[in-house]
Amino acid sequence: MRKAPVNKIIPFSNVDGPGNRTSIFFQGCPFNCLFCHNPETIHLCANCGKCVSSCPAGALSLSHGQVRWDPASCIQCDTCIRICPHDASPRVTFMTVEEVMTQIRRSRPYINGITTSGGECTLYHEFLRELFLETKALGLTALIDSNGSLDFSRYPDLLAVSDGVMLDVKAVRSEWHQELTSFPAEPVLRNLDFLLTCGKLQEVRTLIFPGRDLENEETVRYVAGHIGDRCAYKIIRYRPFGVRERFQQILGDETTDAAYAETYAELARSLGAAGAYVV
Amino acid sequence: MSAALNIIKDPTLTYRQEVLALARLGESTDTTLRYSDAYYAAKAKGALCDLNEGVMPYRPRYICPDYELLFKKGCEFLELDPPADLLEAVNVLEIFYCHVPSITAYPVYLGDLDKLLEPFVLREDRSYAKKVLRLFLRSIDKIQTDSFVHADIGPEDTVTGRLLLELTEEMQLAVPNLTLRYDPEKTSDDFALACIRCMLKTAKPSFANHPMFVREWGERYAIASCYNGLSIGGGGFTLPRMRLYECALDAKSPEDFIENRLPAYIDLQLEYMDKRVRFIVEESSFFKTNFLVTEGFVDQAHFTGMFGVVGLAECCNYLLGITDNKKGFGMNPEATALGLRIMDAIKERVEKHVAPYCDAYDHHYRLHAQVGIDTDGMDDSPGTRIPIGAEPTMLEQLEVNEKFHPYFPTGTGDIFKFEETYIRTPEAILPIIKGSLANGLRYFSGYLENNDVVRVTGYLVKKSEIEKLRQNKQSLNQVTVFGKGAQDGGHALDRRVQHHEESSRQ
């Protein structure tokens, strides 16, 4: 039975696509973004055991070289993820498609669909395809929230059962993308074009950093020029909350000013991206 | 200082609030109505509560006049002709409202305003109609100064309904309370979304499960006061409540409670209700001479008694020895199952009781999940709600509610507090409302975390008005003081917020 590591499932979310959605957060990400505000989702647990003794609730144990997490006694204090030297979390469950479906069925009366996120959910593209098949059979929509690292053109079967992709375009200049995410920009930009062409682009998101006028403008101009009014454009303000301290030193500890972010939404709209808005 | 002098010297009471307080004091001096010693003992223990309804009921607690009849034939006593245009229609209503008694002295049901006014609104130009309705709503807020004053709209989309929503949002008033009768077959998504947008700005309207109420009451039902289901042209005689936590305190076990203590308390509350209902019908002048009765705006046969309960969560947790609410009723299947057993036992016994009058309801009272009063503190959560501070996720909270709401034809409801991002995403709330109502939820209320107008337990207050009382100033709305008490003692405004931070990523 195919399993995938799930960090958490949120029954109701209003910020992961249209309507009310159940969001499934998978563990693991090929990017390592400086600004990531849930860095504990980047890597899988290395089973080093450092977190075990730190747990005030005794919810963690080490057996046969594996860190075990007991959700029943966990008090969600986050001590383990703060202590983890590997940007991972012991609070991850390897779930089958059926196990995830059980949770989705429970939310079903109240939701429009599901969104898979992460981490980077497309690391588990085969799992997603199976999950979406089941989800669509319930009459729900299925959206992918992605950083664009997977070459979508190679997975038509996945796109065929998905209602669309919400794509992060974090930067367009390659060096800046590389510095921000440890990953080149080109695959992401190819996905932007590809998903537009096949009509599967639901939304693009770009993060606006305080004081990075040049980089911000470059990215917004590029994205707005490409997407026009064919999908929504979400301009997200950088928020230092949850960002690793060493990276806060690079990106700053201030939230991007709302009015400043709004100037980029205006810029995007002036370039034809009618659906641009700030959150 | 005498009780009367206390009232007269209280700097926070308006003149009308003083008059009403003095009237209550006067009423309390009478001793005509007597109950059994066991009843008084239960009341002294706090197991039964009369909601300060007064010892001498001189009108039914809630009255829901037939306003359609008023528009059809006018009112002889008030010398009102049937209205010929919008201006006359709102004038007729404004006058009539001042003569509808209730426990609060203010009318708890203003009518299905959209249906009543639509024919008149359609004959006017939109901006003129809006101006007239604006003045109408202003007169209600400034004359009927009590948050239990309640108007209904829906289920269909109407021009009047839209105008009332626009004005409700623009005017930001606590009065009147407002309900959309929601029917998935009759209410368009567009109209429901307009109601949700309005709810996020002003904490109203709430959403009533129209098909459920119609099954129980027929098409002619009203949502009055907080969230009370009653018959149009009828109402509620009286509403006492069992405080279930206190009822459980002398039980040795859940079985002892259900087999012995609970039936005894139920019978005492029934005894109390029977006596009051008889008194209102047989002794007080209301059903004999009041023009509402003699001109047919209400019919005594369409009144029923409302059998209230409160504090089911704390009752179950106590009986199971659960001291942490977070591990109790609502979260713990055993506690929730016990709650269902207790409700089944209450329902069965109350339905078996042959009540005086209540002719339209086969001589039975109907259950009500009472919403709590300002002095309840943290001992008894409203009706069957999960205690504030122990709420699980919204999904789990809805699932629990859906099990309990069907028990209460005369009203129950739950309130959900949303965080700011929902202003942008009302379409994320609509499927939640649709799904929960389809699954048995009776009544859904919501509000936005940072608004001034907020829903306390069932009624609306303005936080800025509570602040006035804290500064020893008067608040025109006589319910503000309840809001203050519920905030101080019951932490009623600290309910769980449906958040987005839980899910967003950057």
Task: Kindly describe this structure.
Chain A has helices at 79-83, 97-107, 125-137, 156-160, 174-181, 186-197, 213-227, 245-251, 258-270; strands spanning 3-13, 21-26, 60-63, 66-69, 93-96, 113-118, 141-146, 164-168, 201-208, 232-237, 276-278. With 279 residues, chain A is α/β, with parallel strands linked by helices. In chain A, the strands form 2 sheets. Chain A has a 9-stranded mixed sheet with strand order 5-1-2-6-7-8-9-10-11. In chain A, helix 7 (213-227) links the parallel strand 9 and strand 10 (232-237). In chain A, helix 2 packs parallel to helix 3 (125-137). The radius of gyration of chain B is 22 Å and the shape is globular. In chain B, the strands form 5 sheets. In chain B, strands 3-4-5-14-13-17 form a 6-stranded mixed sheet. Chain B is built from 20 helices and 17 strands. In chain B, helix 18 (430-438) links the parallel strand 13 and strand 14. Chain B folds into 2 domains: 34-60 and 228-412, Alpha-Beta Barrel (Anaerobic Ribonucleotide-triphosphate Reductase Large Chain); 61-221 and 419-430 and 447-506, no CATH class. Chain A binds chain B through residues 10-16, 18-21, 23, 35-38, 106-107, 109-112, 117-118, 145, 207, 236, 238-239, 277, 279, and chain B through 393-395, 398, 421-422, 424-425, 427-432, 434-436, 438-439, 498, 500, 502-506.
